[in-house]
Write a structure and sequence with these properties.
Layout (H helix, E strand, L loop, with lengths): L2 H22 L18 H15 L7 E5 L5 H10 L2 E6 L2 H14 L3 E5 L12 E7 L8 H11 E14 L9 H14 L7 H11 L2 E7 L1 H4 L1 H9 L3 H10 L1 H8 L1 H9 L3 E9 L1
Parallel strand pairs: 1-2, 1-4, 2-3, 4-5
Antiparallel strand pairs: 5-7, 6-7
Helix pairs in contact: 1-10, 5-7, 9-12
InterPro entries: Erg6_SMT_methyltransf, Methyltransf_11, PiNMT-like, SAM-dependent_MTases_sf
Family: Belongs to the class I-like SAM-binding methyltransferase superfamily. gTMT family.
GO molecular function, one term: S-adenosylmethionine-dependent methyltransferase activity
Length: 278
């Protein structure tokens, strides 16, 4: 990972995470609104439902040692640790996120541990975890193959990999247009992303690095309402005051929430899932 990108991602989440927690809670990921995206839900419940639906889709009913790659402030890690009575480890580029996740784990008295680490060079031995979980962090990775290779390396034989990430539409039949590429570049700039790829491309990479029993799914319709919910809730007094005190990068990201909503509406942005074993 280039040092400049590393610093941009770290600074973005250092600046924005406390605001996100204050206004929207501990889960920094999409919500699930039913297969047709029409189930009315409170935002936090929709985010918890996404975790549960991912576990159900991947047929995961138990885990003992979990790695959360791109853990944020520990939302998924702590939820999974409590659900399964498991040990959870989370990694993030943000010291602010790692420290807050540690505080939350201690407060909840859960067996969860967090550290600052690069997902392209994970500080773990081969075959360490029976569940490797990555929820909306793959889009930040400048080397998608290296990222999936590392996830495969630290997964125990027979373990499960669950991966959900932002993608762009398939390009087999029609390449991205100049307008679509411009839309993506605007998203990259605001959210500190190097680039995203299509779900079929992720599948190809996953097979190449050695994952087995691979399944994939497109849950774009199920999660797309999330962005409009966040946009609506961003105009509360608490959110507005928090934005004013959190710095320009966070303000810019908030002002650009519509980029993601419009990306889903036009079929450009996709929410891709991959489940596999080792």
């Amino acid at each position: 990972m280039t040092s400049t990108l590393y610093q941009q991602i770290q600074q973005f989440y250092d600046a924005s995470s406390s605001l996100w927690e204050q206004v929207w809670g501990e889960h920094m990921h999409h919500g699930y609104y039913g297969t047709d995206g029409r189930d009315p839900k409170e935002r936090r419940q929709a985010q918890i439902d996404l975790i549960e639906e991912l576990l159900r889709w991947a047929n995961v009913t138990q885990a003992d040692n979990i790695l959360d790659v791109g853990c944020g402030i520990g939302g998924s890690s702590l939820y999974l640790a409590e659900k399964f009575g498991a040990k959870a480890t989370g990694i993030t580029l943000s010291p602010v996120q790692a420290n807050r996740a540690i505080e939350r784990a201690q407060s909840a008295r859960l067996n969860a541990h967090f550290q600052v680490a690069n997902a392209l060079e994970m500080p773990f031995a081969d075959d360490s975890f029976d569940l490797v979980w990555s929820l909306e962090s793959g889009e930040h990775m400048p080397d998608k193959a290296k990222f999936l290779q590392e996830c495969h390396r630290v997964l125990k034989p027979g373990g499960t990999f669950i991966f959900a990430t932002w993608c762009h539409r398939e390009i087999d039949r029609q390449p991205l247009t100049a307008d679509e590429q411009k839309h993506l570049e605007d998203i990259y700039r605001v959210y500190c992303l190097p680039y995203v790829i299509s779900l079929p491309e992720y599948e190809q990479i996953a097979r190449k690095v050695g994952f087995k029993d691979l399944r994939s799914a497109d849950w774009s319709t199920a999660v797309a309402p999330f962005w409009n919910v966040v946009i609506d809730s961003a105009f509360t007094p608490a959110a507005f005051f928090g934005l004013l005190t959190s710095g320009w990068t966070t303000i810019q990201a908030a002002l650009s929430l519509g980029l993601m909503s419009r990306g889903y509406d036009r079929g450009l942005i996709k929410f891709g899932l991959v489940c596999a074993t080792k």
